[in-house]
């Protein structure tokens, strides 16, 4: 399946029982990528809840049957403000990885992302520390999320020059419609721009792109409303056509969105606490290999 399961609300607004049912359903449909982070969901709890729920679920399944993608660097130091994050120093990376492994109940991470960029720590310090975990087998692959084009270019050059562990995944905010402006202020969340996509698809094609928030909190569904950041006449026309197409094939508009993104060579992430919604949303991507 060319789609991943988002788990940000597991253990907070989505109960453990519901999370287990969703995880079982996703895997039964052929899913493998389970996306989480060490700061999920600090806005509704303290952070670490999602990893803890996934860890309890992992204890009852074949660890090798799924890929655990988690992120570090964005856990708020004060508990509630992501603009004051833990960062990506060598010391922080060591403690964050140790804590994530403990919560997840595993001895390795399939993919570890730098959740947001840390401008206070030299890139070489961060990447060297991460490379050491790859060399030890504790982390299989590395990813980044929410890096600007300039910092991404700098990072890729550094990796090549210093012969560090390669970048395998890059995660950005992305959907089938564009925000009012590509530089719209989503806080620490950065949109996938044509320039970033070109860099990763044409110059560094071994990096897999991942899209978070592709469904815009149900905005594509009948009765859904476009967020202000996406409220344009062009997007309204697109959504109207999408809904009509979904009706014709008797599928949900969200399922079409995920398929469009997957067919575009990007892995979309989808989250829900309802098994019915998971089945509807993943219906068109479950057979994509």
Automatic annotation (TrEMBL):
Enzyme Commission (EC) number: 1.1.1.-
Domain NADP-dependent oxidoreductase as annotated: residue spans: 4-286
GO cellular component, one term: cytosol
Pfam families: Aldo_ket_red
GO molecular function annotation: oxidoreductase activity
Keywords, sorted A to Z: Oxidoreductase
Stored InterPro entries: AKR_Detox_Biosynth (IPR050523), NAD(P)_OxRdtase_dom_sf (IPR036812), NADP_OxRdtase_dom (IPR023210)
Superkingdom to which the source organism belongs: Bacteria
Protein name: General stress protein 69
Organism of provenance: Grimontia celer
Record gene name: yhdN_2
């Amino acid at each position: 399946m060319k789609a991943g399961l988002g788990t940000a609300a597991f253990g907070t607004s989505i109960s453990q029982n519901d999370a287990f049912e969703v995880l079982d359903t996703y895997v039964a449909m052929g899913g493998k990528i389970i996306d989480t982070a060490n700061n999920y969901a600090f806005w509704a709890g303290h952070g670490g809840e999602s990893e803890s729920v996934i860890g309890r679920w992992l204890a009852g399944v074949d660890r090798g049957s799924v890929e655990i993608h988690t992120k570090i660097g964005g856990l708020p130091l004060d508990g509630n403000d992501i603009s004051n994050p833990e960062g990506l120093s060598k010391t922080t990376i060591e403690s964050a990885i140790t804590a994530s492994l403990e919560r997840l109940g595993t001895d390795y991470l399939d993919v570890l992302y730098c959740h947001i960029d840390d401008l206070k720590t030299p890139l070489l310090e961060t990447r060297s520390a991460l490379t050491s975990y790859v060399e030890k087998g504790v982390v299989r692959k590395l990813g980044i999320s929410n890096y600007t084009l300039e910092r991404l270019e700098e990072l890729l050059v550094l990796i090549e020059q210093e012969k560090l562990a390669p970048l395998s995944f890059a995660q950005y905010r992305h959907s089938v419609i564009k925000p009012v402006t590509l530089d719209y202020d989503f806080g620490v969340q950065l949109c996938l721009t044509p320039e970033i996509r070109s860099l990763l698809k044409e110059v560094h094609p071994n990096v897999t792109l991942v899209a978070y928030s592709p469904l815009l909190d149900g905005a594509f569904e009948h009765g859904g409303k476009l967020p202000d950041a996406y409220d344009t006449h062009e997007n309204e026309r697109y959504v109207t056509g999408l809904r009509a197409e979904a009706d014709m094939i008797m599928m949900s508009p969200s399922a079409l969105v995920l398929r469009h993104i997957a067919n575009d060579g990007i892995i979309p992430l989808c989250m829900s606490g309802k098994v019915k919604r998971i089945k509807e949303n993943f219906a068109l991507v479950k057979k994509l290999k």
